């Protein structure tokens, strides 16, 4: 008999139908006459209830069926006696594939902290919370590729190992085959990278953007979607050392086109989640509400599905950085000294400032544009005022910045001058400058941190809980 996924059984199983299902036990309860086994195979947040007659199967077999044991069940679907699902499976045959000793298996059917589950990240997929998170993550990855494919973009695989630093931050992981003890040195006593594998210092990439621009200036519209790395010693709920980025780059796009694309793209992803992940979203919403039920009303997060619909249903406000600073300086929190960080023209806005603009002032998602050039990267198009660049940040409720992007500087002379001002070595970036020498065009792009978006879409509170195996300072387990 062909095995059916539990999702298929719950969606279309008919009373009287003979089916074969396989999965992992979530819970088992019962009496001396009958056991009820909640079985899950990862295809859905919902479990299929298995009804097992104790006399038929014997206590010895049923004793081996504990939380996380893997089993296969043949049986007949009957009308469910409980609420929540239409059918349940009366077992005629049970096969135990793998036992899970309840005295040793760490994730039992009780409340575990997220910190504990991170320590057992190899097993946390089996919990309802993490199975929901990773189904949504999959759906969003698929939706990203579908969105760009349907718009005629080309998926470009940019290098993971690179000799350039797109952000100019210098917080990069070195890639080397030189011996860590007594590496070869030059006459000056410096490490001799000429003897390294690539013949020069190389790092793990912080962004695929610069190479994406090269593709866009020939293919028109491209996007990258790959792993990126930051060697930033940050132990916050919003930072990872290894994360995934989506970075579209578009020839002949100016800042307004870039903003329009970012808004359309985010709304597409959120609509896809609402259309295709509702069971998981409802589960995560209920979980979040349970977590926050003891908080004062004004400290609770917006309900998850309501928050997603809020983004979908509102036009994003477009506002300049300068206007935003004026709004913040005239706000009650500023005047009452409630902001933790200062507010003045030229600062890099903090999450508290971004959230005030979205949640309190505009009550809509916001796209901030025209940032001071001194707090932005060398490649951003310089505005005519000489002080700002054609940058944009998309700000969301509860999370602040979710997308950062800009129109890119297409003028060769201006770009070289800016690189000199920011100590970016133009001689090493000759290949990047060539796109401004030969057939330069207005072009723009942005970056969406995938985990930051999944954090928003799932309502989880820590970015380490939306990637399978988080890489953070002093942690490279699994």
Q: How is this structure best described in words?
A:
By secondary structure, this protein is of the alpha+beta class. Helix content is 33%, strand content 23%. The protein has helices spanning 6-12, 54-63, 114-119, 128-150, 209-219, 255-276, 278-292, 304-313, 321-329, 332-335, 351-362, 412-421, 430-437, 450-458; strands spanning 18-30, 34-40, 48-53, 70-79, 87-98, 154-155, 161-162, 174-175, 202-204, 221-229, 242-251, 317-320, 366-372, 388-396, 400-407, 443-449. An 8-stranded mixed β-sheet has the order 6-10-11-16-15-14-13-12, with helices on both faces. A 5-stranded mixed beta barrel has the order 1-2-3-5-4. A 3-stranded antiparallel β-sheet has the order 7-9-8, with no helix packed on it. Helix 4 crosses helix 6 (255-276), helix 4 crosses helix 7 (278-292) and helix 6 (255-276) runs antiparallel to helix 8 (304-313). The longest helix is centred in the N-terminal third of the chain and has 23 residues, at 128-150. The protein starts with 5 loop residues before the first helix and ends in a 20-residue tail after the last helix. The model has no long low-confidence stretch (mean pLDDT 95).
Keywords for this entry:
eight-stranded mixed sheet, 478 residues, 14 helices, single chain, alpha+beta
């Amino acid at each position: 008999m062909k095995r059916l996924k539990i999702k298929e059984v719950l969606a279309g199983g008919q009373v009287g139908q003979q089916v074969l299902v396989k999965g992992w036990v979530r819970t088992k309860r019962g009496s001396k006459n009958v056991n009820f086994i909640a079985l899950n195979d990862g295809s859905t947040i919902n479990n299929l209830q298995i009804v097992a007659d104790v006399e038929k199967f014997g206590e010895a077999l049923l004793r081996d069926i504990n939380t996380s044991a893997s089993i296969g069940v043949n049986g007949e679907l009957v009308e469910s006696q409980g609420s929540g699902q239409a059918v349940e499976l009366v077992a005629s045959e049970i096969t135990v594939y793998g036992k899970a000793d309840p005295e040793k298996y760490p994730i039992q059917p009780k409340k575990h902290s997220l910190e504990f589950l991170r320590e057992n990240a190899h097993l946390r997929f089996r919990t309802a919370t993490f199975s929901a998170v990773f189904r949504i993550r999959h759906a969003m990855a698929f939706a990203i590729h579908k969105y760009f494919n349907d718009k005629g973009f080309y998926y470009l695989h940019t290098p993971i190992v690179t000799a350039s630093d797109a952000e100019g931050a210098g917080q990069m992981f070195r890639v080397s085959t030189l011996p860590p003890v007594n590496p070869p040195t030059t006459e000056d006593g410096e490490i001799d990278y000429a003897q390294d594998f690539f013949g020069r210092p190389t790092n793990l990439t912080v962004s695929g953007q610069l190479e994406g621009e090269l593709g866009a200036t020939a293919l028109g519209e491209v996007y990258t979607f790959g792993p990126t790395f930051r060697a930033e010693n940050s132990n916050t709920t919003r930072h990872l050392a290894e994360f995934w980025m989506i970075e579209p780059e578009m020839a002949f796009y100016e800042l307004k086109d870039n903003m329009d694309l970012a808004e359309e793209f985010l709304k597409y992803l959120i609509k896809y989640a609402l259309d295709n992940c509702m069971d998981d979203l409802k589960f995560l919403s209920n979980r979040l509400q349970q977590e926050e039920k003891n908080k004062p009303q004004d400290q609770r997060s917006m309900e998850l599905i309501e928050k997603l619909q809020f983004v979908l249903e509102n036009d994003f406000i477009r506002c300049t950085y300068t206007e935003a600073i004026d709004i913040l300086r005239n706000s009650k929190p500023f005047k009452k000294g409630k902001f933790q960080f200062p507010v003045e023209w030229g600062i890099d806005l903090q999450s508290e400032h971004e959230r005030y603009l979205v949640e309190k002032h505009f009550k809509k998602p916001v796209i901030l544009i025209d940032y001071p050039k001194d707090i932005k990267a060398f490649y951003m198009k310089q505005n005519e005022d000489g002080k700002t660049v054609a940058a944009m940040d998309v700000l969301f409720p509860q999370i602040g910045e979710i997308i950062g992007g800009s129109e890119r500087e297409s003028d060769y002379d201006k770009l070289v001058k800016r690189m000199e001002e920011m100590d970016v070595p133009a001689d090493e970036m000759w290949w990047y400058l060539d796109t401004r020498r030969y057939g330069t065009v207005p072009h723009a792009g942005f970056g969406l941190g995938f985990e930051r978006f999944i954090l928003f879409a799932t309502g989880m509170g820590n970015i380490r809980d939306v990637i399978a195996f988080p890489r953070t300072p002093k942690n490279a387990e699994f």
